[in-house]
Amino acid sequence: MNPVSPLLTVVVPLFNESASVRALLDSLYPVLEKTACRFEVLAIDDGSSDETWQQLKLAAPHRRGLKLLRLSRNFGKEAAVSAGLEKAAGDAVIVLDGDLQHPPELINQMVPLWRESGFEIVEATKEARGEESVLYRSSAGLFYKLFHMLTGYDLGPSSDFKLMDRKVVDAWRGMEESNLFFRGMIAWLGFRRTQIRFAVQDRPSGVGKWSLPQLVKLAVVAVTAFSTSALHIITILGFAFFVLATVVATRTLYLYFQGMAVSGFATVILLQLLIGGALMVSLGIVGEYLARIYTEVKRRPRYVTSEAIGWDDVQSASRNDER
Questions:
Q1: How confident is the model over 203-258, as pLDDT tens digits?
Q2: What 8-state DSSP symbol labels residue 73?
Q3: How far, in Å, CA of 165 to CA of 117, rounded?
Q4: Domain boundaries, given as residue ranges, for the chain
Q5: Three-class SS string for the chain?
Q6: Which pTM value belongs to this model?
Q7: Could you report the per-residue pLDDT of 110-125, keeping only the tens digit for each?
Q8: CATH-assigned architecture of domain 7-207+301-318
């Protein structure tokens, strides 16, 4: 192989994927061999409780360029992707899910778009979402519509399956926040990008690892990390209630000076309940933003590494290699 060919890094976050490790590597390596690029594969075990790490260790001696990183506990997919991006040395970096729902064959379409067409981001977008429950599909659709409305970024069909030029990865590494939302962060960066379509594959084994509470938490972090629109909504809501209160007060005074009995006990109770509920929701929104600030000012590392194979030196804890 030409020694000056570009280096391609593939980052694969894994959590309890022992049943698919072998199949993943068996399908990924033949694809990488066809790219005419040098390559490395960074497998990040996000604190799996099954045999994922053992399977990776067994594969490492037989797979050229396979580097392994084990996090000390389950920090979440966003942190695992962060670990891979911080350690990636490639001229281009591809993020690929470890459950084989992202077909590795698309890499052969991504690399020419980067090398020959000059695109700095090549995104794989979903034309079919695969097997998902009605609740999951509906919740995801609602989140993406809300995210688009509040931030202006339409992430509906996008996925974490992306190729990024070195300059994009370096720009991402300069973003120092602890509240991570990889897909949104890449959208915020801009750069020259293109898309290729794919159908999400069925999982060959196991089940999805995202629970509803985890998805809700990610949605809240994503919205509050990328937009202050929710705070502006509170201001609008407060102004609306002020107008309502002015109207009610004016009517009450008018009736009083006309010598008419002021009635409407049920109306008063309903208004109090409505205003009280709005205040509680508003405090909750403000609390979420305060929680994001609290997380940021602590400056804790995004992840902690417990074991590494294939690197000469890997720090045990990191927010960003450049810090």
A1: 665 555 555 566 666 667 666 666 666 666 777 777 777 677 677 667 766 666 66
A2: S
A3: 12
A4: 7-207+301-318, 229-298
A5: CCCCCCEEEEEEEECCCCCCHHHHHHHHHHHHHCCCCEEEEEEEECCCCCCHHHHHHHHHHHCCCEEEEEECCCCCHHHHHHHHHHHCCCCEEEECCCCCCCCHHHHHHHHHHHHCCCCCEEEEEEEECCCCCHHHHHHHHHHHHHHHHHHCCCCCCCCCCEEEEHHHHHHHHCCCCCCCCHHHHHHHHCCCEEEEEEECCCCCCCCCCCCHHHHHHHHHHHHHHHCCHHHHHHHHHHHHHHHHHHHHHHHHHHHHHCCCCCCCHHHHHHHHHHHHHHHHHHHHHHHHHHHHHHHHHHCCCCEEEEEEECCCCCCCEECCCCC
A6: 0.70
A7: 999 998 888 999 988 8
A8: Alpha-Beta Complex (3.90)
> What's the mean pLDDT in 116-137?
74
- Residue carrying the six token digits 């008063």: 268
Residue given tokens 């281009």 in the structure block = 92
The token duo for 241 is 């209630």
* 41 contact partners, CB below 8 Å, separation of at least 6: 9, 10, 12, 25, 28, 29, 32, 63, 65, 66, 67
